[in-house]
Amino acid sequence: MDTAETAGLRQRKRQDTMDRITRAGLKLFGSSSYEATTIDDIAAEAGISRRTFFHYFKSKDDILVSLQSGLGRQLAAAIADKATGLRPLDAVRAATLSLVSAHPRDELVHLDRLMRASETMQARKRANYIIEEWELFDALRDLWPGETETRLRALAMLAIGGARLSLDAWTRADHAGRAEDYINGMFDAIEAVAAAD
């Protein structure tokens, strides 16, 4: 086996273990509660030692944060898939909707409730939005080099902020309807503001 194959195997094994820990945490958070679940519980459910848990996560909070981190990169990849022939705003809307619709409704509701379960988690979630804006901006700049950076930065901010506000509205409505409908409504509002210029 060459060095590249060994590195790839190691990375896959690491990702598999991380996924197993994440699934175990989510299962336990749902069956008892976030607060009642201990790291020892998660390690036992995942079939690993407590020490191994800390090789992957610093705390149980990090399990939830890991689900949100990388969202900007996922959105950037989805935009790249949909960018051909679309305006940046339309590509961002299509990509956002495809990411949200890829998750079952029950999973979205469960994750939303977990992320809102503690003030610490909410603060970390808000901090991640800034990272996601920059990741999205970088992708937009690469895909539409002819656009001004100011317009693309504003679009990244509006897209991430709009998604956040949409999900907040969906939560306030006790998750009535589809999250996609709230996101579409927010992008309609962004379009209306842009057209008013």
TrEMBL record:
Protein's UniProt keywords contain Lipid biosynthesis: no
DNA-binding region(s), chain positions: 38-57
Cleaved signal peptide residues: none
Family annotation (PROSITE patterns): HTH_TETR_1, HTH_TETR_2
Annotated GO MF terms: DNA-binding transcription factor activity; transcription cis-regulatory region binding
Domain of life (superkingdom): Bacteria
One of the Pfam families matching this protein, by short name: TetR_N
Annotated HTH tetR-type domain residues: 15-75
Keyword field: DNA-binding, Transcription, Transcription regulation
Protein name: Transcriptional regulator BetI
